[in-house]
Write a structure and sequence with these properties.
Elements lengths: L1 H9 L5 H22 L1 H8 L8 H29 L1 H21 L3 H29 L4 H9 L1 H18 L4 H20 L17 H12 L2 H31 L4 H25 L5 H16 L8 H15 L2 H12 L5 H30 L2 H4 L2 H23 L1 H5 L1
Helix pairs in contact: 2-5, 2-6, 2-8, 2-9, 4-5, 4-6, 4-16, 5-6, 5-9, 6-7, 6-16, 7-12, 7-15, 8-12, 11-12, 11-14, 11-15, 11-16, 11-18, 12-14, 13-14, 13-15, 13-18, 15-16
């Protein structure tokens, strides 16, 4: 009887809002990664050729987007408290799609930046609320469902880079690709905003939450010293992951003299590894193994990523990108879930929002820094050493937290 009950508890049960979250992450990833895949062609079209010193401008695209992601993320807790997570996410995805559609129309670099600002405002709310949105759906084993939902980020990356890389190689305009991805986002918004079934409503808070209450929750979390350890971990996790997502395609095209299609395959290999890892952890992960998963994955990612800047064989690079994708897979969702376990006194929605406020700047800062180093050295490959550096620092932070936990609560750590 007990075995049967355990089996039932491990079976994943999905509903409408799980699928809405999957589609939201898919469209978010597609809108984010299509520009890096098309960056070489886009840069030439808009007048900042990467081969002529335009790498800093390329990195600035995502850095600017990140600023507006952060700005809206800081207020997404208030939006969720006032209008609920479901409506807030639906409007955010709609805004994100509108910004991506404007990117397709942009006649200049300046207009492209403005369009990315609009997309960033929607992405910030989505980034801040997606994890607590899923957490509220599955409070018993949230880490499994969070990992599965986050798997649709690399699914979106994988599908986008393969399709867009192939179409770019065939001469299809990058503008048409970006416009098509905007339509995907509008479908995701519809899934969230369509009227609810009376029998299966999203479990919103029963009454609106005043902004002062939300601000008090944020201040309480910011006053916990241990939170800042996880804040740093998220900053590094976001940086290492998105450096590979953003710059892999350009690195392959510039350093190997390869086509946009080959660049897309390289990014797809990384995304495929992340997809496999997150789906795998979504099926297998147990809540009490979160720290071990992040620590050993970070160490493995460090060792796998170290040879990447020196490789001259494109097929070996593809293999390593897949492997480092598997290692990177659990970082973002599992660090968040692990932090929630370690800080049970904190409001989980605000905790996830604040952690995303570390991960997103990590993505933007290290993406810009890689472009800056590429310009300074004249070789984008050198900048890829930032990736194992981020992973190693993440492993050290998680190891330190484990050591500190063992000192303060040895019985819990031993169990």
């Amino acid at each position: 009887m007990s075995g049967s009950k355990a089996d039932t508890s491990r079976r994943m049960v999905l509903g409408r809002y799980d699928y809405a979250a999957f589609q939201s992450f898919f469209s978010y990833a597609s809108g984010t990664v299509v520009l890096p895949v098309a960056l070489v062609a886009l840069a030439r079209d808009l007048g900042f050729d990467l081969e002529e010193g335009g790498m800093t401008e390329g990195g600035l695209l995502h850095f600017t987007r990140t600023f507006f992601v952060m700005a809206s993320m800081l207020f997404c807790g208030i939006a969720a408290g006032r209008w609920g997570k479901r409506r807030s996410m639906g409007v955010a995805v709609l805004l994100m799609g509108t910004g991506v559609l404007l990117c397709a129309w942009a006649p200049s670099y300046a207009v492209l930046l403005l369009a990315l600002m609009v997309a960033g405002l929607g992405e910030g709310v989505l980034e801040g609320l997606a994890t607590p949105f899923v957490q509220d759906l599955h409070p018993d084993e949230p880490a499994r469902y969070i990992n599965l939902t986050h798997a649709f980020w690399p699914v979106g990356v994988l599908a986008t880079v393969l399709v867009s890389g192939g179409l770019l190689a065939l001469g299809v305009s990058w503008r048409l690709l970006v416009a098509g991805i905007a339509l995907v986002a509008f479908v995701a918004a519809a899934l969230l905003l369509l009227p609810e079934s009376k029998l299966r409503k999203y479990p919103e808070h029963p009454a609106p939450i005043h902004w002062k209450t939300i601000w008090g929750q944020a201040r309480q979390i910011l006053g916990i010293p241990r939170f800042w350890l996880f804040f740093c971990a998220m900053f590094l996790a976001g940086g290492g992951e998105f450096c590979l997502t953003f710059w892999s395609a350009s690195h392959i095209q510039l350093n190997f003299g390869a086509s946009a299609w080959a660049g897309g395959i390289g990014t797809a290999c990384f995304a495929g590894g992340m997809m496999s890892g997150r789906i795998g952890w979504g099926i297998m992960l147990k809540q009490h193994h979160l720290r071990q998963v992040v620590f050993w994955s970070a160490l493995a990612g460090t060792l796998i990523a170290l040879p990447i800047p020196q490789l001259s064989n494109l097929w070996v690079l593809f293999g390593l990108l897949f492997m480092v994708g598997v290692a990177t897979a659990p970082f973002w969702p599992t660090v968040q879930s692990y932090c929630a376990d370690r800080l049970p006194q904190a409001d989980t929605t605000m905790l996830f929002v604040l952690l995303s406020c570390a991960g997103i700047p990590g993505c933007g800062f290290f993406t810009w820094l890689m472009g800056f180093i590429g310009n300074r050295t004249g070789d984008l490959a050198t900048a890829f050493y930032l990736v194992p550096a981020c992973f190693l620092a993440l492993a050290i932070i998680i190891a330190f937290d484990g050591w500190r936990s063992a000192q303060t609560n040895p019985r819990r750590e031993a169990s």
